[in-house]
């Protein structure tokens, strides 16, 4: 009985640490999106410098989950909880990387004249941030229904990314002066779409933990 209580405490500690890493990754995404939309080089640099803390937490959680698997030999939902948390941790680290990539685009664009206001880019950034927030809330609450909503919303992010690409290509054909900035904006939109994809991966892991069902490649169905 005492051994079970001790193991349960370890699982609670694991969730706390995953949520600590999630908070850092989500903050990095929000700051990077703001820096990209507003050409804020100082905020972009803050994102880049902050990535080391996310990477350090990933290393810590790697070791922690391996110890849990090796020493406690968990079964059933406990095993899914640990494996699912490992998957979420990997995606949180990638979210940090995408935020850094987006921040680099923001730093470049801050050195050039601003592009015209683009509502679709704002909508894509808002969609990606909202998906990530919902995916993390689904993890906190073990909410499979909310995780499914995140998966289905990914189509909207994909459509916005394609619309932005077509818009910038059309503008660059008619005005060659914006080609350089347009290319960086298109790549930035791709980073935002990748953030939406990674939020979907987190949602898939929530379904795996709660129901033991693999949603890879079928999350949107």
> Helical percent range?
over 70%
Tell me the name of the CATH class. Answer: Mainly Alpha
Total count of domains: 1
Strands, count:
0
Q: In DSSP terms, counting alpha (H) and pi (I) runs of 4 or more, how many helices?
A: 6
Our measurement of the CA-to-CA distance between the termini, rounded to an integer number of angstroms, reads: 42 Å
Return the CATH architecture. Up-down Bundle
Give the SSE order as H and E letters.
HHHHHH
Q: CATH homologous superfamily name?
A: Phosphate transport system protein phou homolog 2, domain 2
Give the amount of beta strand, in percent. under 5%
Low-pLDDT parts are none
The quaternary state of the protein chains shown equals single chain
Q: On the 0-100 scale, what is the average pLDDT?
A: 93
Overall body shape: elongated
Q: What structural class do the secondary elements suggest?
A: mainly alpha
Rg, Å, rounded: 19 Å
In the CATH hierarchy, the third-tier topology is known as Methane Monooxygenase Hydroxylase, Chain G, domain 1
Largest sheet: none
Characterize the structure shown.
The protein has a single domain (1-211), classed as Up-down Bundle (Methane Monooxygenase Hydroxylase, Chain G, domain 1), CATH 1.20.58.220. The chain contains six helices and no strands. The chain has 221 residues and is mostly helical. The longest helix has 37 residues, at 2-38. Helix content is 86%, strand content 0%.
